[in-house]
Amino acid sequence: xxxxxxxxxxDLDLLMQSYRLAKKSICHFIIIDNGSHNQQELTKSFLxxxxxxxxxxxxxxxxxxxxxxxxxxxEQLGSKWVLLMDHDSLLSPYLLAAYHDLIPEVEKDxxxxxxxxxxxxxxxxxxxxxxxxxxxxxxxxxxxxxxxITSGSCxxxxxxxxxxxxxxxLFIDEVDYEYAFRVHQSxxxxxxxxxxxxxxxxxxxxxxxxxxxxxxxxxxxxxxLKRTYYRARNLTYLAKRHTGYRNSKSExxxxxxxxxxxxxxxxxxxxxxxxxxxxxxxxxxxxxxxxFEN
Length: 294
Known about the structure:
Structural class: alpha/beta
Number of helices: 9
Number of domains: 2
Number of strands: 12
Low-confidence stretches: 289-294
């Protein structure tokens, strides 16, 4: 099993912490950097370390492209499974041990193994949805779920290739959920390890805010204009690519209501949503091939 991390202006101390926790349990530690400002420091800190493979992209071509680079490199190195991590997630050594125990038992019919995930700031993640098909393997409690975030997920490279890899047209947002949707549609499973939890940081441009109203505390996302645009664009595009994908129109409508009631820069955000819908309608669904180029 390899470990692959996509970085963008990463906290190098946290990244080093993940490396030190993982190095004895993995074959390769693959870092794909998406055009960070600190590439020089990243190279100096990691390039010469054992098991590290560092790929520096000159520009940010999106999360999906970087994930595909990890999968491709891991496949070239002869690995069958790769653990995907965000640079702002806290790696647990128990997670690595659990995956090593589980992979031989489930690899035929399972495309993704993931942990339970909790946010350091209270954001709910899909990994916490109610599971089904509960089972116990080697003392690990497993549930079948329909979707999960990428970080902390260990994916089968064989199944990933057969499913057509990650959709690079998405750039950011919905990359993990779209892939999970195809896993579910194919009849393969996503297994969550219920008794192992990973802490995941909310990214800087998607902060959790609180509003106190009528003796109640309401949480909402204060997203950047960029993410507001991409969420609207990608949901519109995916409604065309996949029948029944997340009830995209409803998701966009909810986002508009939240902007009007809660968020700052309301007019700018509504314009971003409108532009995202317009651009999403222009996009042509990607025909996934069983292979890709860097």
